Amino acid sequence: MTAHTAQNGESLSAAPAVPGAADEAGLPGDLTEKLGTLPSQPGVYLMKDGAGKVIYVGKASSLRSRVRQYFQPGHTDSPRILHLISKIRDVETVVTANEVEALILEATLIKRHHPWYNVRLADDKAYPYLKLTSDPFPKIVMTRKVARDGGKYFGPYPYHEPKLVGRTIRLIRRLFKLRTCNLEIAGDLPRPCLDYYIGQCSAPCVAWGATREQYADQVRQASAFLAGKQDDLLNDLRAAMQAASDAKNFERAAQLRDQIRGLEALGEKQRMVSSGSEDRDIVALAQDGDMGCVQIFFVRGGRVVGQEHFMLRGTRGVAAAETLRAFLPQYYETASAVPPEILLPEPVPDAEVIEQWLAERRGGRVALATPQRGERVRLVAMARENAALHLAEEKARIGDTAGPGVRDLQHLLRLEAPPVRIECYDISNFQGGESVASLVVAEGGRPKKSDYRRFRMKYTEGPDDTAMMQEVLRRRFAQARKEQERLDRDEPIPVKWAALPDLIVLDGGRGQLNAAREVLFEYNQTIATIALAKQQELVYIHGLSEPIVLPRESQGLQLLQRLRDEAHRFANAYHQKLRERRIVFSALDEIPGVGERRKKALIRQFGSVRSIRAAGVEDIAAVEGVGPKVAERIHQYLKDHPA
């Protein structure tokens, strides 16, 4: 693969055009030159904004034709694509050997960069898998990464139900006696661990335990079970039970009988959806605005052996077929199994390329089918209904994004989408001392107190509200950048700062708004930002010379007021706490011989200066590290200074 890059920091001042018309259109010279030298081979292109951030990743059979097409007048009337084009300041291309390789690379780069204008999995890194390791005596473990390490992977399992994976592991161990330990198996231990005695391991670690051949048979059975091939497995077990019975090995026959009963009980819970023995995945989509949900039913041997839904972002203005086309490579790139048939509600672009790639992954033919009649149509409809249900549940979980207050704000502020997540900032200072700031968050119009944050000023001197607002925003977005870099490296950390708002509300006026926009520019953020001034409740918006007055009865204004008041309360509470702490410690600071360690010990013992003043010399002396002489000094000082 070969990479080509063009850099420039200028902006597009008019509608983009083909390179030949670049001068008339105002297209930057560096980018114009780049468009004229693009390779004609297949590959992947990365669109970047002025800060060098990847905002879109696409693939093409001819990079030259596809990329140049974006800059041709009248190429599209899609608001989404037109908005993308207006942000492009740089294009990087990667040449690949063929379209299949480009398809794989496109999916990888989307997962790596999370481009704003691409349809992307919202949480693809979080899905757990079961893994049978490649050890001589394989063990069963849970993992969140699929690697080409010789192991066998099964899943994914629901990301919101990690306990389900644990239950499945315990079931596998009970039925097939597989180990989970990290021992180097040599069969020379004097005795097995407790797992053997409670029936969850066949003890290959001891000489009289399972042999390599016996353990390999257990692994084969467990693999068949996890792959959904229960019928074949049951037939094998019944034959083995009969053989053990004929050989008068009744203990072994009884063990196999119990194993068969357990598998039959599980099989009764699985829904038969086909009279045949087909293996297929059934994929359907529901999308609403910028959110989408894909539902997959995993059918093995004619039975639904599992299901999962995947939340998507970046679906606004994208056709359903294109959304599915974007989803399939991202999912099947790491899927543990590829069936011979995948049912879809409608044909998708690049179907032949995707089929060819999936066939290479499976090692056999794979068909993307769109059923027109019969049983398979019903299955796709059932998957679509489930996708719509999960999407509605997710929207309800994060709050009603189309609720009255949020919907009203979108209309009044002329926002492109409902502001699902709103962050409100407030500054609190008192005579230049203990200046603090607060950040409160609402999602779907409801407070999300777990995301509230408080800031103590570190770098701003004096009661300068605009400078303090800039300090708070810089610290907030610096933390977001650091956390996102760790998430991009697949580090398993909780998301605290990387979740960015759709709308920022500042307590203040034009000065606070301009100060905030400077910080947003520094961090290359295009988040809608407003300032809400007290008393007259004027709303300052960038681009408008005069503030606007929202109707008093407006639910959008009432939502802003609730957020502003909550931010003010939260900041004042923290400010008061710091002031009280400073007042307490400043009283003790005046006493000779009372340092930081003794101050902390006294406050820990008595709770306040008032309680210390009321205590006797003996009680004060009893505090660790104080002693009689210092206690007498403290008692006398507080007696002489009652204020």
Summarize the structure in words.
The protein is flat and about 100 Å long. With 643 residues, the protein is α+β, with helices and mostly antiparallel strands. It folds into four domains: 117 residues, GIY-YIG endonuclease; 118 residues, Nucleotidyltransferase, domain 5, CATH 3.30.420; 175 residues, UvrC, RNAse H endonuclease domain (Nucleotidyltransferase, domain 5), CATH 3.30.420; 51 residues, DNA polymerase, domain 1. The chain is built from 21 helices and 22 strands. Strands 15, 16, 17, 18, 19, 20, 21 and 22 form an eight-stranded mixed sheet that branches. Strands 5, 9, 10, 11, 12, 13 and 14 form a seven-stranded mixed sheet that branches. A four-stranded antiparallel sheet has the order 1-4-2-3. α5 crosses α12 and α15 packs parallel to α16. The N terminus is likely disordered. 44% of the residues lie in helices and 18% in strands. The protein starts with a strand and ends with a helix. β10 and β11 form a beta hairpin.
Number of strands: 22
Biggest sheet, in brief?
8 strands, mixed
* The CATH homology group name of the largest domain: UvrC, RNAse H endonuclease domain
Q: Report the top-level CATH class of the largest domain.
A: Alpha Beta
Number of separate structural domains? 4
Topology record:
Blueprint: E1 2-5, H1 22-25, H2 29-36, E2 43-48, E3 54-60, H3 63-70, H4 79-87, E4 90-95, H5 99-113, E5 120-121, E6 129-132, E7 140-143, E8 152-154, H6 162-176, H7 194-197, H8 212-226, H9 230-246, H10 250-269, E9 271-272, E10 280-288, E11 291-300, E12 303-313, H11 320-332, E13 341-343, H12 351-362, E14 367-369, H13 375-397, H14 404-413, E15 421-430, E16 433-443, E17 446-447, E18 453-456, H15 465-488, E19 503-507, H16 510-522, E20 528-532, E21 538-541, E22 548-549, H17 555-589, H18 596-606, H19 609-614, H20 617-621, H21 627-640
Parallel strand pairs: 10-13, 13-14, 15-19, 19-20
Antiparallel strand pairs: 1-4, 2-3, 2-4, 5-12, 6-7, 6-8, 9-12, 10-11, 11-12, 15-16, 16-17, 16-18, 20-21, 21-22
Helix pairs in contact: 5-12, 9-10, 14-17, 15-16
